[in-house]
Automatic annotation (TrEMBL):
Keywords: Isomerase. PANTHER family: 4-HYDROXYPHENYLACETATE CATABOLISM PROTEIN (PTHR37950:SF1). It holds the Pfam family CHMI. This is Isomerase. The keyword Isomerase applies. GO terms for molecular function: isomerase activity. InterPro entries: 5-COMe_2-OHmuconate_Isoase, Tautomerase/MIF_sf. It comes from Streptomyces yunnanensis.
């Protein structure tokens, strides 16, 4: 926890340094939400080859961050995290000046049935 999924349009590939973004995102989450550590953050990126926005206007791009955390955080905490993540997304896509970038973030609770297990390296599986 948290599980972070970043879907982004292929047109953003040349502008978005995913590793740098993830490192900054993890630090931001740990700073913003009690109980989140950098070591607990897991981010996946999916580059979407085709996106249709509105009536297929040219030079449009999409990036959406789905940020799933354990339940129990206040709405205010989730809102603050969402806005901070959106600000980070905007900073990391600012160089895409030839594109209209549609950026969004959803901070949501993981389901109560969420479970996990971590097997440390060097141990039997």
């Amino acid at each position: 926890m948290p599980h972070i999924l970043v879907d982004h349009d292929a047109t953003l590939r040349e502008f978005l340094d995913t590793r740098r973004f993830a490192h900054e995102l993890h630090a931001l989450a740990a700073k913003t939400v009690d109980g989140i550590t950098i070591e607990s953050c897991k981010t996946r990126f999916r580059c979407v080859e085709e996106v249709v926005i509105a009536h297929d206007a040219p030079r449009q791009a999409l990036i959406h961050v789905d940020f799933a955390i354990l339940p129990g955080r206040t709405t205010e905490t989730k809102t603050a995290l969402g806005q901070a993540v959106l600000d980070l997304v905007r900073a990391h896509t600012a160089a895409a000046t030839q594109l209209t970038v549609h950026a969004s973030v959803e901070v949501r609770d993981l389901d109560a049935a969420y479970t996990k297990h971590v097997t440390p390296a060097g141990t039997e599986r």
